[in-house]
Amino acid sequence: MSSPSAPPSAPAAGTLDPRRWLMLAVALVAMFMGVFDFYVINIATPSLQSQLHASEATIELIIGGYTFTYASLLVTGGRLGDIFSYRRLFIVGMSLFTVASLLCGISQTGTELVVVRLLQGVGAALMVPQVVALITVTFPPAERPRALSWFGVTLGLALVSGQILGGLLLSADIADMGWRVIFLVNIPIGIVTVALAAKLLPKTKAARRPKQDIVGTLGVSASLGLALLPLILGRSEGWPLWGWIMLGLAVPVTAATVLYERSLPARGGEPMINLDLFKTRSFAVGLLTIVGIMTFYSGFIFGMTMFLQAGLGLTPLRAGLTFGPLGIGFVVSSILARPLLMKYGTKVIIIGQAMLVLGTLATLAVLKTEGVDISPGMLVAPMIFAGLGTGLCLPSLTGVVISQVPPQQAGVASGVLTTAQQFANTAGVALFGVIFFNVLGTKPSLTDFVSALEWVAGIGAALSAATLALSFLLPRGRIAPPRPPAAAPAPVATATAQEAQAVR
Length: 504
Known about the structure:
- Residues 23-478 form the Major facilitator superfamily (MFS) profile domain.
- By secondary structure, the chain is mainly α.
- It has a single domain (16-202, 210-502), classed as Up-down Bundle (Growth Hormone, Chain: A).
- It contains 20 helices and no strands.
- Helix 4 (74-84) crosses helix 6 and helix 4 (74-84) packs antiparallel against helix 18.
- The longest helix is centred in the middle third of the chain and has 31 residues, at 281-311.
- It is globular and about 60 Å long.
């Protein structure tokens, strides 16, 4: 947003709300739910497919539809928060997310579930970008780093618990609800969160409401939609011609949107995305670095999930528990990342990325050494190491990226960053999925699964190393207390059980 409007800044020390940490907890619930609800759907796909008699394409739409609207509308959600107030958009988004969860839980056909999953993604896109802005207006600069550490903890828990808690919920089979419980569990949480948000979140408004940018909003959403839909459905549909046409159209539509946004200020308008954000080295380089990390991270987790479920034959719950060390490492190091960043600057990011590369190479070494004799326990140490590295670099990078973003652009900057993360997640699954399945072949043995994961780990390590080199372009020195991190990285797509069964 390029508006010179003056939204509320962080409160002075004498006016701090004593309930601000409870406010933070309320805001972080939205981030947790947005990430959790993508992971959990992957665990339930066998039940979904059998009970709804859904085709593979329908299952892909149930999973990817949420991703599609979530990613396509994140920037718009951030902009609307800048215009109409972060509290209002948070409540609207959470309410819509909760209602959509109810509709998901009572859906009777695959088509119904696809439609309401799209609606659920809209709710997530409205509520998640408001988290960073709400922290900005609630906490003074001295307390924001501490809020950042809680952000990292929540993110790590969400990344792990989607598969683990999803497996537990399905195994418990509460009231014989089957897959429906993974959606219905959101309802009491959503109702309580909306009630607390209405009571606790600050009723702040900008001094002047910025102008709306309808053309820019449509252009950004169309650009992302044209790029995301082929990536979501391309693999299951055999990469059809329409997918390549959409990807091709995404380029001129994006270029036209950028040109329009760049020219709008000269005509008295206020672009949805202030392109001057990308002139700041910390924002531009940090954003590219995050995209590289998330592309690798999502693709690696996809390949590992396929290997565990289809190759080793683990249940979804056991496969999810195998990722526990990765999440634990992430949570621990994300807590330590903030004070280390304050003391040592961007060296922490470089060290974290180096650990991620080494953890991936260690996984490759285990695969090469053990071959078909590999067991999940052999992956614990490499996963912990990779998790520690990811926890050091990702929260630190988000802090660096938004450290120089003006408060009045907090919502849009959050949306831009989260959209980039989600796009990277989708692209990573598509890219590494092609690699994995091409190596796997049509009638794979365990040897083929090991070989496929070796390729994923090797190419992933190379991509991660290239991203490490890019991080050397970040500004050096110690980092001033950053503004809070962007909204949660959109969830990483993991292999569905239906996909796993297809290659067993």
